[in-house]
Amino acid sequence: MRPSSLTAPHTMLTGLSMGESPRWHQGRLWFSDWGAQEIIAVDPSGRSEVVLKAPLGLPFCIDWLPGGPLLVVSGSAGLLLRREPGGSLVTYADLTSFSAAGWNEIVVDGRGNAYVNGGPGIIALVTPDGAVRQVADGFAFPNGMAITPDNATLIIAESHGRKLTAFTIAADGTLSDRRVWADLGSGVPDGICIDAEGAVWYADVPNQCCVRVREGGQVLETVNLDRGGFACMLGGPDRKTLFIIATEWRGMQHIQEVAAARTGQLLTIEAPAPGAGWPFN
Asked: CA 51, CA 134: separation in Å to the nearest integer?
């Protein structure tokens, strides 16, 4: 099968500071705007709402416990926070004993296990009873994570490793059988999501695109962008809308400049297969 380039995406929102961590939840697309220190929700018509002002240092990423509250990774503080019914944030888990370096992405599986990555290239597991333990390490800049619908496989993007790495998930949440799920060649994966055909979409900042790949690395589709692709998520009423967060990128040394320029966009395009697995709630 030859890879195809999908048509140009539709622009749903503009003027974002630094969007990340999109999630489809209860009929809306939620995401973190790091530069604006906000968590925003957008309905299918494009109406947006600032759901939570989050006075947190970047990064801060989000996901939900199954049928439960919102979790927020306060990356710079090394905390996993839980949103209370009144909107306040309380500590759900303290990750600082594993690393004082910044934490990044989160994915919660169907059992309520929360996996958080970051620090010196590690994944920590927070179980529903509040226990925290390290379950993997040695990643080349860990980024987006996704879990298959059967809760059996976790896939993580290694941005500097230019690959997607997979693990088998045990009943207690332990990760084993580490393997390269896809060698991406020149691809630099950031945020990822899984579809119902078992393919993975990954957003790519330096190559300004969003790419769908099969296990083994075969490229199936590419969405070309005019700025860096930071994250993607399948959602919408039938889960066949691919949401892409894209922003002009000028390097780590210019983060404040990038945030102030507000070049971030939320883009949408019809995907060939609906979303599957986690994150989804």
From this structure: 31
